[in-house]
Amino acid sequence: MDVRISTDLCDEEKKTTQKRVEVVKRCLRSHGIDYNPENPPRVALLGSGGGQRADVACLGTIRQLGKENLLDSFLYLAGVSGSTWAMASLYDDAQWSKNVPSVVSRALQSMSEGSSSSFSECVQWLRERETQKEICPSPISGVWWWCPTSRVYQ
């Protein structure tokens, strides 16, 4: 396999980007957003890292943007760590941007499969681990990671 080294996009990527720019322009017009037609904004949706919390946050953000019909205003979608888990679940459906609610619901369902622990069971599991000095959950927000994750480690 050859590696392409260049300071510019390949022709195929240029064509794809130009097609996407036209989609962005239509979206902006449909929302009454003014822009320079010769130089439309090139906006990226960026997802953070943070494991399962980032995964859920990215899915929630995408779901709301879909409800507001704003997904087509983004030229790029990029992320790291947990948000890429969300992105990977979207890419199972080639038409994901048109089927956002069902795609996000499937991703969340998949995430929760096999997790039958109640909240109180998760808190009990955390207390046992903390007492045994196996874990040291710092901020309370860590509970929202530890609870679903506790099922994996049981």
UniProtKB/TrEMBL annotation:
InterPro entries: Acyl_Trfase/lysoPLipase, LysoPLipase_cat_dom. The keyword Lipid metabolism applies. Keywords: Hydrolase, Lipid degradation, Lipid metabolism. GO terms for biological process: lipid catabolic process. It comes from the Eukaryota. Residues 1-154 form the PLA2c domain. GO terms for molecular function: hydrolase activity. Coiled coil: none annotated. The keyword Lipid metabolism applies. This is PLA2c domain-containing protein. It comes from Coilia grayii. The lineage of its organism: Eukaryota, Metazoa, Chordata, Craniata, Vertebrata.
